Structure formats: C-alpha cells, structure tokens
C-alpha cells in the first residue's frame, strides 16, 4: 500500500518516464492458473538470469517494481524479470468469486509459477508482504542464488499476527478520524481490491521459528528505511540467517522504495561475484 507524503513524492518527469516504460511493458503481462486454479498474472520482461520480484501488501508488481524504475534497471543490466501480481492483487484479482488463501498460499503460488516457467536458477527479491512471502519460500526449500528483502524485520516473520491485526483494524477503522485507515481504504477502492481477501492474505502466513530461519543459507541483504519500525528489527532478522546482513537507508516503510539508494543497493547486491557474496 502506498500513499505520497511530502518527502516521498517524485518529480513529474520521473513519473512520466516510468509511465512510458509501463506502456511498453503492458504486452508482457501473462496469466496462468496456480496450484489450486486461482488466477496468477505476472510480468515476464527481458532476458538473462531471472529475478523473481514479489510486491507489497495491497499493491501490485507495476506499483512496487515498474513505476519506480527498479524493473527497467534490472532488465538494462541483463536480467530477466518475473514480477507476479500476488493472489487477490492487481491482475490476479478474481472478481467473480472469493479467492481461498490456504496456509502459505502466496509462497505456494510463487513455487508454482517458477515450476511452470521451468526456472530453477534465479535471484529473489520482495518488499514488505512480498519479502515475507520470499522468506516463507526459503523456509519451504527454495534455493535462489541471492535474496534481497525490503521493509521486513524479525517480529513480522516469527509472529505475523500482530501486523495482520493492525491492517485489519485499518480496514475497519473510521477513515474520517484515522489518516492511515483513510489512505488504505482509498487504495482498496481505487484498485478494486477486496478487504476480505486482503485480510485472508495476511492471515495465510504461519509463524516461523528461529530454528527454521537458521536453516536459510542463500546470501541475503535486508534493506529497511530509517523510519520503518512497523515490522520488527531487520538486524535481528539478519542475525537469524546464516549469511545475511541488514542496512538502513532514508525513508518510511512506504517511502523507502522511492529512495534511489534502495534500487542501487539491490542491483549492486545481485551483481556481486561469488567470492564477495561469501564474505557476507
């Protein structure tokens, strides 16, 4: 979910450039049915080693990865981008019936998509709920070469319930008196999302134990804004992985993606050579 504050706005020229890129990529949107028949839409852009990009809660691939230029920078660096709209979000939204969200539904969707595309050698990046989905994939045995997690800390991984409670409260709160509720509810109306499905998507994440996290081996970079304390401590999360570190950059939870430093750190990390990766 994104809404602009005075420090999070970009120039009109940047927006127009990314809007043009979005139009060029529109034909790249494809659809498959997931493991249980739910629709799953995704962008498939570029050539080279794939990067699976997983977007944030109440957002979509276009908003999280395309509009800010991250996807185009990766493509220009010689990478293939696979960027799905998560179940119940964007073009994966099913308007004729309520979508089911079994435990780990979003991780299962991502595994099904990679299998359908015959992708086994890939990098993985996610933001906020997308980062939590990426962690659940890793805990289920996914083995990407490198991982970038944005907007995520330990508390939201080990016990995602409180974050789900907060979002559910915002979905029900009076928008006249609660700015955050007003912004989220307006986004849901604008994007024709279902509050019931959004709640179910958050509730589909099980708790994760520290022991499970310690089994995660791929080199991992965790990036959070210096004003982002909504989802736990990123350094504490990194400490539970075998090969991870956390960095803070300027930004709120919603604003960090708009900071060019986020894209720069993501691209740098995904292009590190093997020797440097092992030094993490």
List keywords for this structure.
alpha/beta, 13 helices, about 280 residues
What's this model, at a glance?
The protein has 280 residues and is an alpha/beta fold.
Molecular structure report:
With 280 residues, the chain is an alpha/beta fold. It contains 13 helices and eight strands. The chain has an eight-stranded mixed sheet, with helices on both faces. Strand 7, helix 11 and strand 8 form a beta-alpha-beta unit. Helix 7 (161-172) crosses helix 8 (179-190) and helix 7 (161-172) packs antiparallel against helix 9 (195-203). The two termini are 31 Å apart. The relative contact order is 0.15.
Strand arrangement within the widest β-sheet reads 1-2-4-3-5-6-7-8
The SSE string, one letter per element, is: HEEEHHEHEHEHHHHHEHEHH
Structural class: alpha/beta
Task: Assess the beta-strand content as a share of residues.
Answer: 15-25%
Profile the largest sheet: 8 strands, mixed
Shape: globular
**Helix percent band:** 40-55%
Structural Rg: 17 Å
**What's the β-strand tally?**
8
Residue windows where pLDDT falls under 50 for at least 5 positions: 1-23
Tally of separate helices: 13
What is the averaged pLDDT score?
88
Distance between the termini: 31 Å
Write the layout of secondary structure elements.
Blueprint: H1 12-25, E1 29-33, E2 39-45, E3 50-54, H2 61-66, H3 70-76, E4 80-85, H4 105-116, E5 123-127, H5 129-139, E6 147-150, H6 154-158, H7 161-172, H8 179-190, H9 195-203, H10 210-213, E7 220-225, H11 234-240, E8 244-249, H12 260-270, H13 274-278
Parallel strand pairs: 3-4, 3-5, 5-6, 6-7, 7-8
Antiparallel strand pairs: 1-2, 2-4
Helix pairs in contact: 4-5, 7-8, 7-9
């Amino acid at each position: 979910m994104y809404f602009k504050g005075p420090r999070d706005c970009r120039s009109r020229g940047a927006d127009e450039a990314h809007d043009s890129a979005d139009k060029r990529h529109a034909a790249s949107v494809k659809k498959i049915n997931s493991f249980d028949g739910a629709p799953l839409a995704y962008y498939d852009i570029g050539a080279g080693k794939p990067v699976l990009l997983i977007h944030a809660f109440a957002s979509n691939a276009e908003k999280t990865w395309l509009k800010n230029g991250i996807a185009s920078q990766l493509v220009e660096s010689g990478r293939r981008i696979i960027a799905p709209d998560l179940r119940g979000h964007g073009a994966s939204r099913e308007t004729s019936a309520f979508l089911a969200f079994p435990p780990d539904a979003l991780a299962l969707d991502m595994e099904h998509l990679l299998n359908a595309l015959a992708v086994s050698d890939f990098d993985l990046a996610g933001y906020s709920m997308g980062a939590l989905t990426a962690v659940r994939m890793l805990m289920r045995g996914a083995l990407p070469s490198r991982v970038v997690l944005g907007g995520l800390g330990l508390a939201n991984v080990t016990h995602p319930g409180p974050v789900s409670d907060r979002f559910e409260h915002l979905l029900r709160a009076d928008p006249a008196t609660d700015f955050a509720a007003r912004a989220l509810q307006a986004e849901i109306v604008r994007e024709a999302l279902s509050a019931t499905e959004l709640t179910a998507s958050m509730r589909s994440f099980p708790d994760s134990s520290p022991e499970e996290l310690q089994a995660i081996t791929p080199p991992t970079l965790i990036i959070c804004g210096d004003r982002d304390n909504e989802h736990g401590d990123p350094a504490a999360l990194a400490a539970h992985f075998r090969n991870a570190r956390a960095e803070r950059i300027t930004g709120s939870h919603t604003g960090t993606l708009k900071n060019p430093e986020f894209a720069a750190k993501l691209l740098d990390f995904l292009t590190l050579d093997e020797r440097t990766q092992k030094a993490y």
